[in-house]
């Protein structure tokens, strides 16, 4: 694999007191399915995995993850891990438009690009953070390379292939809606789109006027042609690492994430349904997600002495057990948040551990 490009930049962003700008290195490497671009922040830490992110359709790593990784309380995490932000081919800033007839990689092939990234960087293990299509890609990678994935944070994952009814609905929508509008409907809830908040206006403008909109459509088509991940609780096809599933209340993919939770190992899986976060919790509620991510890392044995963020003073992160409605699902762990106290609950009521700093 030959390196095609390496550029060092300094990203402009609000800094915490005493904090210096974080240098980013942009790399591109060739893979069997084309070139892939990724951005590295920080330096590898001994005996610690890299945090590797993968974005959703219509976005790139900046528009998908910047609000989360620039959040003040997230700085304690990113100081302890090197992180790699992968851009799907043709989604990076300044990407040229692919020629007419270009065969865009499938989501499975996009997952097969990740080993080339890790080999180039000489990284042995990662903690993946993916949204939507990116969550699917990281899950596929984890199924194929379980020994290299220590944990996964999967936001808005839909592990299922589209059924005939889904395809019919998709085709009908395509007759009356533009590609940008269909992608916005994938990213955000109908309530959010109807409210037309400043966030919605911002992302509608980003997608509608994207110079690489033709590339985005190719990524969108690959997502809609995804295969079923075939997760099976207690079966051979499952994620072997700790997993945190995240979805916003009333988000477009709420049902799919709930179903995914029912198919994964309940001893390894946490389910976080975030209130008041809409379709993109990493954009709308970076504080809540940072808090949950920190608990997740601590559960994996990292940052054990870390102080909880200020969110813990006014929010509750609780672990509760719930059985499925149909009685066929095993008990699973659910992370839920309220604003009634500052405790972390685990197990039956009354067993609580106060977390403060």
UniProtKB/TrEMBL annotation:
GO BP term, pick one: nervous system development
Entry-linked InterPro entries: AB_hydrolase_fold, NDRG
Location of the region described as Disordered in the Swiss-Prot/TrEMBL record: 1-20, 320-357
Claim: Transferase is one of the keywords in the record: no
Short name of one Pfam family: Ndr
TM region(s), chain numbering: none
Composition bias type Low complexity, residue spans: 333-347
Alphabetical keyword list: Cell projection, Cytoplasm, Developmental protein, Differentiation, Neurogenesis, Wnt signaling pathway
Compartment(s): Cell projection, Growth cone; Cytoplasm, Perinuclear region
Gene Ontology cellular-component annotations: Golgi apparatus; growth cone; nucleus; perinuclear region of cytoplasm
Assembly and oligomerization: Interacts with CTNNB1.
Function: Contributes to the regulation of the Wnt signaling pathway. Down-regulates CTNNB1-mediated transcriptional activation of target genes. May be involved in neuron differentiation.
Family: Belongs to the NDRG family.
Protein's recorded name: Protein NDRG2
Species for this entry: Chlorocebus sabaeus
């Amino acid at each position: 694999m030959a390196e095609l490009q390496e550029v060092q930049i300094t990203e402009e962003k609000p800094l915490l007191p005493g904090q210096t700008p974080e240098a980013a290195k942009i790399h591109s490497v060739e893979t069997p399915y084309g070139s892939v671009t990724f951005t590295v922040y920080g330096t590898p830490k001994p005996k610690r995995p890299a945090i590797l992110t993968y974005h959703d359709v219509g976005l790139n790593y900046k528009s998908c993850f910047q609000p989360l990784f620039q959040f003040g309380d997230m700085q304690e995490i990113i100081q302890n891990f090197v992180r790699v932000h992968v851009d799907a081919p043709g989604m990076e800033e300044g990407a040229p438009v692919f020629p007419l007839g270009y065969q865009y990689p499938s989501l499975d092939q996009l997952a097969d690009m990740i080993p080339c990234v890790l080999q180039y960087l000489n990284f042995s293990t990662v903690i993946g953070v993916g949204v939507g299509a990116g969550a699917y890609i990281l899950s596929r990678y984890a199924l194929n390379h379980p020994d290299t994935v220590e944990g996964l944070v999967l936001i808005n994952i839909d592990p299922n292939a589209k059924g005939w009814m889904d395809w019919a609905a998709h085709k009908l929508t395509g007759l009356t809606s533009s590609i940008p509008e269909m992608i916005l409907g994938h990213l955000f809830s109908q309530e959010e789109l109807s409210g037309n908040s400043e966030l919605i206006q911002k992302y509608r403008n980003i997608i509608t006027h994207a110079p690489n909109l033709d590339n985005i459509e190719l990524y969108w088509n690959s997502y809609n042609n995804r295969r079923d991940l075939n997760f099976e609780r207690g079966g051979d096809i499952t994620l072997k690492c700790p997993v945190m599933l995240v979805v916003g209340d009333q988000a477009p993919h709420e049902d799919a994430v709930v179903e995914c939770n029912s198919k994964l190992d309940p001893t390894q899986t946490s389910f976080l349904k975030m209130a008041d976060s809409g379709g993109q919790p990493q954009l709308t509620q970076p504080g809540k997600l940072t808090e949950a991510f920190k608990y997740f890392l601590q559960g994996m044995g990292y940052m054990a002495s870390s102080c909880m963020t200020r969110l813990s003073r006014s929010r509750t992160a609780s672990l509760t057990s719930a059985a499925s409605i149909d009685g066929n699902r095993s008990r699973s762990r659910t992370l839920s948040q309220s604003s009634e106290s500052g405790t972390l609950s685990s197990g039956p009521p009354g067993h609580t551990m106060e977390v403060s700093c």
